[in-house]
Amino acid sequence: MAKLIGNKKNIAVFISGRGSNLKHLIKNSKYKNSLFKVNLVISNNPIALGLKYSKKSKIKFYVINYKNLLSSEIRILKLLKKFKIELICLAGFMKIISKNFINKFNKPILNIHPSLLPKYKGLNTHFKALKNKDKYSGSTVHLVNAKLDSGKIILQKKVKIAKSDNVRSLEKKILKEEHKIYSEAVCKVLSNL
Ligand code: GRF
User: Fewer CB near the last or first residue (10 Å), C or N of the chain?
Assistant: First the structure.
């Protein structure tokens, strides 16, 4: 990981479910020479399992109900300001991020996607890779823009698909790599700000 220059930058992580990427971002943020601190967690789901990681590390979290996209995003933008957030990580966040939100925040928003983008945007990526008998799959960290899974690629990690792999085993292999590359990608972007 890159060396610390000045203070750690505050990041926010947006989740909807399990939160294993959140868990590893928090873990990696605690190293002395990490460039970032997870200062805020946002979830649209009050029972997201991943919320336990923010509780455990005493990181403030907010559940936003998303009944209305515009007012939910206005509320989140205020929180991002309050917590001095420099970068957002979407980690299994299942809600739309509007163009208006991207423009208003005007700082990097990253997403992690379980395929070798531009291949297999959207859902069921492991199923698609297996069905097409691909030799490799993997994970991609990319910048978020208004189009689904389409922003500039920051980091990508290839994973070999074994003949014996199924959706579960492939997901497990790829997740293991996601847990490493997400923090690396955050550092890469932050050190270029
Ligand atoms: C990961 O597979 C990630 O690539 C995708 O959603 C999943 C989130 O997993 N965007 P977790 O909630 O971080 O465990």
Answer: C
